[in-house]
Design brief:
With about 425 residues, the chain is mostly helical. α7 crosses α20, α9 crosses α18 and α10 crosses α23. The chain is globular. The termini are far apart.
């Protein structure tokens, strides 16, 4: 019956039904056809509610709101100016600026799509003016914005921490090294491509200019420090940190930068509420399907199947990675996260794999799914922003995708790359 429900789910996706509604209908059909033996369709509304009945999830809409306020409050332009002053002299100037800007933006919004939209709208036209291929300009933004959900405040990490009962801060810190590895590799790729295509570099900014743009951007640059530092100090909880950052973002946008006007707050709150509703609805919709999988003992069967291949940690992680990469070709990261994490947790527990290491590998893997077809959410978003054919973005993003897979193998093989920072700080 689970196989039938899964086929129904993918069938509904193929005809264009929303992912959340597809999960609910597939689960309801499965429960109805298998009514009895402890399975009752009445569990559908109960699991819808219980899956989002968590105080920790209050951080999601608040971090989304803070990111929306910062994006609309002039932060993006100031961070681009700061990045241009710092790395604009490197070969492939604007592509390097794009990667660094997205790295900093990652510490503000925690959303890849929000970062791609904010930076792409400015930088893709600028790169095209300087002779960059349109597909390559969009691919650079797509790769850079993938860093958003890997660095704190990461919405996928918050959801994973809630589902697996992990420390949000430890998971936040675990994403720092993989994100820096990805960023460094992306910048090298940008330099090599710029050398081959003869993309020019801008003049090196003076130290006076760098100091000036740093002063202008310091309020935005401090945001990730306040989040991690506040939680680590024990002075505030995760939820309180999210609320504090919302107030901080409002003060910056309204009174310091002045780019955000009181008349804009209605649309800001509306956009943040809509984004938050989509995220939380997906999590709620996964409840009935996850419950049906649990009652049908599918997690046990999948665990046994994977463990029958090998009990070596690295081999198992490779198998899990291959599974999730295949899933990423069909599903977007958040639905894949809420559907498959409960199934994979028994494997991590049975083998004694560090839960923070395992979580980071899973999240990085699913984020890579945003760069490769056929779903490739960031490829679609940046192609729409840049008004370029999807296929040209998909081809140009391949070097970045290749390096992302190398980093995935590295953090899978060497857990120390992931867990050293959480262990050091905590």
């Amino acid at each position: 019956m689970i196989v039938f429900s899964t086929l129904v789910f993918f069938g509904l996706l193929l005809i264009g039904l929303d992912v959340g509604f597809s999960m609910i209908l597939a689960a309801l059909i499965g429960m109805t056809l298998r009514s009895g033996a402890g399975i009752d369709p009445v569990m559908t509304p109960m699991t819808l509610v219980s899956n989002v009945d968590s105080v920790a999830l209050m951080t999601v809409p608040m971090f989304v709101l803070a990111g929306e306020i910062m994006n609309r409050g002039g932060v993006t332009r100031r961070l681009i100016d700061w990045s241009a002053a710092m790395v604009g002299h490197l070969r492939g100037s604007l592509s390097q600026v794009s990667i660094i800007t997205n790295l900093i933006m990652a510490g503000i919004s925690g959303s890849a799509v929000a970062d791609a939209t904010a930076t792409g709208a400015i930088l893709i036209p600028e790169m095209r003016k300087e002779g960059y291929k349109p597909g390559y300009a969009a691919a650079v933004i797509a790769a850079g914005s993938m860093l958003g959900p890997i660095l704190p405040p990461s919405i996928p990490m918050i959801l994973y921490a809630v589902m697996a009962n992990l420390s949000v801060l430890r998971l936040f810190l675990a994403g720092v090294t993989p994100a820096l590895l990805l960023c460094g590799g992306y910048m090298i790729i940008c330099g090599l491509i710029a050398r081959r295509r003869n993309y020019v570099a801008r003049e090196r900014a003076t130290w006076g200019t760098r100091a000036k743009v740093t002063r202008a951007s310091i309020w935005a640059l401090l945001m990730p420090v306040l989040i991690v530092g506040g939680i680590r100090s024990g002075m505030i909880t995760d939820t309180e940190a999210a609320g504090m950052i919302c107030v901080y973002a409002l003060l910056i946008g309204l009174f310091i930068y002045g780019d955000l006007k009181f008349k804009d707050l209605g649309s800001v709150f509306y956009d943040a509420g809509r984004t938050s509703a989509v995220i939380l609805f997906l999590l709620a919709a996964a409840g009935p399907f996850a419950w049906l999988l649990s009652e049908s003992h599918i997690a046990t069967l999948i665990s046994q199947a994977i463990l029958s291949i090998s009990t070596d940690h690295f081999v198992v992680l490779i198998v899990v990675n291959l599974l999730l990469l295949a899933v990423g070709m069909i599903l977007e990261p958040l639905p894949a996260l809420v559907m498959f994490v409960p199934t994979l947790l028994p494997i991590q527990a049975q083998l004694g794999i560090d839960p923070i290491h395992f979580a980071t590998v899973v999240i990085v893997n699913l984020m890579i799914g945003m760069l490769h077809p056929p779903v490739g959410l960031l490829v679609f978003v940046t192609s729409a922003i840049g008004r370029v054919p999807i296929w040209s973005v998909a081809v140009e993003v391949l070097p970045f995708l290749g390096w992302s897979l190398v980093v995935l193998v590295l953090i899978s093989a060497f857990p120390g790359l992931v867990i050293w920072l959480p262990n050091l700080v905590m």
